[in-house]
C-alpha cells in the first residue's frame, strides 16, 4: 500500500500511529489482520448465541437442546438455528408446536420433567 492509503486506513488511530508512516503501516497491517480474524469469529459467536437462545426456549418446555434438534432432524424439519432462535424469542406458541413435534419424534424427549416454575418475590416473603 502506498502512503496515502495507509494514512486513510489509519485515520482515528491514537498517537503517532495515525501520522507516522512506519508506525501507521504496522498498526494498519495488524488492524487488517484483526478484522479478517474477527469476521470469522463473528459468525461463530452468532451461532453460539442462537444455540443458547434455542436451549433456553426448549428447557422451558422440558426438553434439552440436543434432543430437540435430533427430533427436528428425524421429522425432517429443516429450519436453521437463526430462525429457531427468532421463533423461540418472538413466537413462543409456534416454537412450542415445534418442541411438541420434536418430542413425539424422539423418545428421549419424553423422559425429561418440565422445569419448575419460579414464583418471583413470593419465594423471598
UniProtKB/TrEMBL annotation:
It comes from Deinandra increscens subsp. villosa. Binds directly to 23S ribosomal RNA and is necessary for the in vitro assembly process of the 50S ribosomal subunit. It is not involved in the protein synthesizing functions of that subunit. Keywords: Chloroplast, Plastid, Ribonucleoprotein, Ribosomal protein, RNA-binding, rRNA-binding. One of its GO terms (molecular function) is structural constituent of ribosome. Belongs to the bacterial ribosomal protein bL20 family. It comes from the Eukaryota. One of its GO terms (biological process) is translation. The keyword Repressor does not apply. InterPro entries: Ribosomal_bL20, Ribosomal_protein_bL20_C. One of its GO terms (cellular component) is ribonucleoprotein complex. This is 50S ribosomal protein L20. It holds the Pfam family Ribosomal_L20.
Amino acid at each position: 500500500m502506498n502512503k496515502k492509503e495507509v494514512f486513510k486506513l489509519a485515520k482515528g488511530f491514537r498517537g503517532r500511529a495515525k501520522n507516522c508512516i512506519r508506525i501507521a503501516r504496522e498498526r494498519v497491517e495488524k488492524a487488517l489482520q484483526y478484522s479478517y480474524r474477527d469476521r470469522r469469529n463473528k459468525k461463530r459467536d452468532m451461532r453460539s448465541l442462537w444455540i443458547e437462545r434455542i436451549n433456553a426456549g426448549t428447557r422451558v418446555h422440558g426438553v434439552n437442546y440436543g434432543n430437540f434438534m435430533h427430533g427436528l432432524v428425524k421429522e425432517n424439519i429443516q429450519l436453521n438455528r437463526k430462525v429457531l432462535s427468532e421463533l423461540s424469542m418472538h413466537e413462543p406458541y409456534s416454537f412450542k408446536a415445534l418442541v411438541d413435534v420434536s418430542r413425539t419424534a424422539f423418545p428421549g424427549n419424553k423422559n425429561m420433567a418440565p422445569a419448575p416454575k419460579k414464583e418471583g418475590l413470593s419465594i423471598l416473603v
